[in-house]
Write a structure and sequence with these properties.
The chain has about 475 residues and is an alpha/beta fold. Helices cover about 30% and strands about 20% of the residues.
């Protein structure tokens, strides 16, 4: 798929509808025709109330950043590879808006993890592990996945000797005291449990390796700038560790169009560098009162370069016929851009995976504990975070089989081999429920006119003709 296909945009009535649905997307140009940079919605709010301590992300080389800081007497909170974070007051922010060097300004928003058995069987991973006359046996061997999250408990039996490097962008030691990153990491590449009651628990790509890039604190939240730095660090070190995939099971409400969003810019840089970026759609599919929500995709899931993943409820069975879209799973279209997201959906409800010892999730949600103790404990959590981990592991299997697949090709294979879900439709489930057996079969023989469907049935490839899409990655905090 050509890179230009990522930028297919919705027009006409959708474009006219955007302001009505989501409000003003960016402040208008100054009345006198003077330069005024576009600002994200959160920064616009700060301007309106005259805030005195605002974290703002700007773009530029180090010399340009230093010049800006000197020109407006600004404090640099941190330098980024792509710019910097300034601490400013409302007056300084307005001055930055009028500086000719800046086209758009963004807040250093806070992000959260997307937490809300039969998982492997429901997507056909067990068949891919075993192989057949038509399909190779795959484990993800040789592929590395960067897990940008709350850290990884490397003491857990499922993750020992799976983590190649730990880097903590929060200033800590990389340990997962929240419990989210460990759970996601083991979904991607956890080894089988060590006891009778846990030996059936393993990740989708148990032969893959992981990079532990911590950006979320002990409460499961973190800053956009830390995530951006982690993505850029991964790009820089991708050849050193053979990183092919970035997993982002986190997000925040969308505050601006994806082209102005620094998180989406970082995702685009990663994809253009050859990395597949898998992002959780977010858990904003329903209000606390139970009302259905449209347009709740979170950033950076609104990036058309990302594979944005919604969550399925498998209802505890391996059969696909009873799968439904999880009520919490965020739906499209994306805010501001009105692109269609998510791209695909995967199991995300009551997913059993590694439990980080003494972590917030393990202690706060002790009733979610499933089996094992200590370094061999497992917990069931729900959310689009878990679904994103399933897809990252699946992509690792695809890339082991076809190592030269480009990010756009991997995304296209997952979409074209997914099973469309009529009830939630495109805005709820994208191309549909991911089918790993079909994806590997298609990668093996893309010219074939049929695909194997889990359960032995056969059906024609369902090409879901649809627009590229983006949206805010907003998730509810805490397990569901």
């Amino acid at each position: 798929m050509a890179q230009s296909s990522y930028r297919t945009r919705s027009r006409s009535l959708l474009g006219l509808f955007a302001a009505f649905v989501f409000g003003v997307v960016a402040p208008a140009a100054a009345a006198g025709g003077g330069h005024r940079a576009r600002v994200s919605a959160d920064l616009a709010d700060h301007l309106n109330v005259g805030s005195q301590s605002i974290r703002v992300i700007v773009h530029g080389e180090r010399s340009e950043i230093d010049a800006l800081a000197a020109r407006y007497n600004l404090r640099v909170a941190r330098y980024l590879k792509s710019g910097a974070v300034f601490i400013v007051n409302a007056g300084q922010l307005e001055a930055l808006r009028q500086d000719e060097t800046q086209e758009h300004l963004s807040g250093d928003i806070r992000l959260k993890s997307s937490v809300d058995a039969m998982m492997a069987e429901s997507i056909g991973a067990d068949q891919v592990w075993a192989g057949s006359d038509d399909l190779p046996a795959l484990s993800g061997e040789g592929i590395s996945v960067a897990v940008i999250d709350s850290g990884i408990d490397t003491r857990h039996a499922a993750l020992k000797r799976r983590v190649l490097v730990t880097r903590d962008f929060t200033g800590g030691d990389g340990m997962d005291r929240f419990g989210h990153g460990t759970h996601v990491a083991a979904i991607i590449a956890g080894r089988a449990g060590r006891t009778v009651e846990t030996r059936d628990q393993r990740g989708i790509a148990p032969g893959a390796y992981l990079l532990n890039l911590r950006v979320l604190g002990d409460d499961g939240s973190g800053s956009a700038s830390d995530v951006i730095e982690a993505i850029d660090w991964t790009i820089e070190h991708r050849h050193e560790y053979n990183v092919r995939i970035i997993n982002l099971s986190l997000g925040a409400p969308v505050m601006q169009p994806y082209r102005d969003d620094p998180l989406c810019e970082a995702v685009e840089r990663a994809v253009r560098a050859g990395l597949v970026v898998v992002v959780a759609a977010g858990n904003y599919g329903r209000t606390a009162e139970g009302q259905d929500v449209r347009g709740g995709i979170a950033t950076p899931g609104n990036s058309p370069f990302a594979i944005t993943v919604g969550a399925l409820d498998t209802h505890g069975t391996a059969k696909r016929s009873d799968d439904t879209l999880a009520p919490y799973s965020a739906k499209g279209p994306t805010r501001y851009d009105l692109n269609l997201k998510p791209d695909v959906v995967a199991p995300g409800t009551r997913v059993v995976s590694a439990e980080a010892a003494d972590s917030y999730l393990a202690t706060t949600y002790a009733t979610r504990h499933v089996a094992g103790t200590g370094a061999n404990a497992y917990i069931a959590l729900s959310g689009t975070s878990m679904a994103a981990g399933v897809v990252s592991g699946s992509v690792a299997l695809l890339l082991e089989h076809r190592e030269h697949l480009k990010p756009a090709d991997a995304k296209a294979i997952l979409e074209v081999t997914s099973s469309f879900l009529p009830a939630p439709g495109i805005v709820g489930a994208g191309a549909g429920s991911m089918n790993l057996v079909a994806a590997v079969a298609f990668a093996t023989n893309p010219s074939g006119s049929t695909r194997t469907v889990i359960g032995g049935e056969r059906e024609k490839f369902a090409h879901a003709g649809r627009l590229d899409r983006d949206l805010p990655l907003a998730h509810r905090h805490g397990p569901r």
